[in-house]
């Protein structure tokens, strides 16, 4: 016990500092000063730091929520755009198929129309040729008949007398009447 008392008595024999001043011993003062400053900062700055961190956390969470909402809206818009694209592609295919069908139908109609027009022109050509042939044949017949008649009349006039001449004329007039009735 004597040792314990002695150690307390030795604490009482420390010299007093005398006045207040700066201790320039860095190794002895820095850890103490730093621990005091850190203790004060932790004690008083704990609320401020906590508020700053909470505010930062709230902003980050808000940004994440906004990003998620934007992402969901973008996904919805993408799905709508895909649906519209698919609808437009189907409509384009339908128009393409209908267009090709319409083109083929118009092509066949045009071919048929041209074919019918060609047949009509061919028929008109054949009718015109037949008509012109008949007209030419009739003209040739008339000329041959006129020449034959003139030759016969010339022969008859030189060979016949008036009475025979009148009978021949009457017979020819009768033949002309019969020919007119046949036509």
From TrEMBL:
The keyword Membrane applies. InterPro entries: ATP_synth_b/b'su_bac/chlpt (IPR002146). The chain crosses the membrane at residues 32-53. One of its GO terms (molecular function) is proton-transporting ATP synthase activity, rotational mechanism. Residues 57-98 form a coiled coil. Its main location: membrane. One of its GO terms (cellular component) is proton-transporting ATP synthase complex. It is found in: Membrane; Plastid, Chloroplast thylakoid membrane. It holds the Pfam family ATP-synt_B. Keywords: ATP synthesis, CF(0), Chloroplast, Coiled coil, Hydrogen ion transport, Ion transport, Membrane, Plastid, Thylakoid, Transmembrane, Transmembrane helix, Transport. It is a single-pass membrane protein. F-type ATPases have 2 components, F(1) - the catalytic core - and F(0) - the membrane proton channel. F(1) has five subunits: alpha(3), beta(3), gamma(1), delta(1), epsilon(1). F(0) has four main subunits: a(1), b(1), b'(1) and c(10-14). The alpha and beta chains form an alternating ring which encloses part of the gamma chain. F(1) is attached to F(0) by a central stalk formed by the gamma and epsilon chains, while a peripheral stalk is formed by the delta, b and b' chains. Component of the F(0) channel, it forms part of the peripheral stalk, linking F(1) to F(0). In plastids the F-type ATPase is also known as CF(1)CF(0). Belongs to the ATPase B chain family. This is ATP synthase subunit b, chloroplastic. It comes from Guibourtia ehie.
């Amino acid at each position: 016990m004597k040792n314990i008392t002695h150690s307390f008595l030795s604490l009482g024999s420390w010299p007093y500092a005398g006045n207040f001043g700066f201790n320039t011993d860095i190794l002895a003062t820095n850890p103490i000063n730093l621990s005091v400053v850190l203790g004060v900062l932790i004690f008083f700055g704990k609320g401020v730091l906590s508020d700053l961190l909470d505010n930062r956390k709230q902003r980050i969470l808000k940004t994440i929520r906004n990003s998620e909402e934007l992402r969901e809206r973008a996904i919805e818009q993408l799905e709508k755009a895909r649906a519209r694209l698919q609808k437009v592609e189907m409509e384009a295919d339908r128009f393409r198929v209908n267009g090709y069908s319409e083109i083929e139908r118009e092509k066949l109609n045009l071919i048929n129309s041209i074919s019918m027009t060609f047949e009509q022109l061919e028929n008109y050509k054949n009718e015109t040729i037949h008509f012109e042939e008949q007209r030419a044949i009739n003209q040739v017949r008339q000329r041959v008949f006129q020449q034959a008649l003139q030759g016969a009349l010339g022969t008859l006039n030189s060979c016949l007398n008036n009475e025979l001449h009148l009978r021949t004329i009457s017979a020819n007039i009768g033949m002309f009447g019969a020919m007119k009735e046949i036509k």
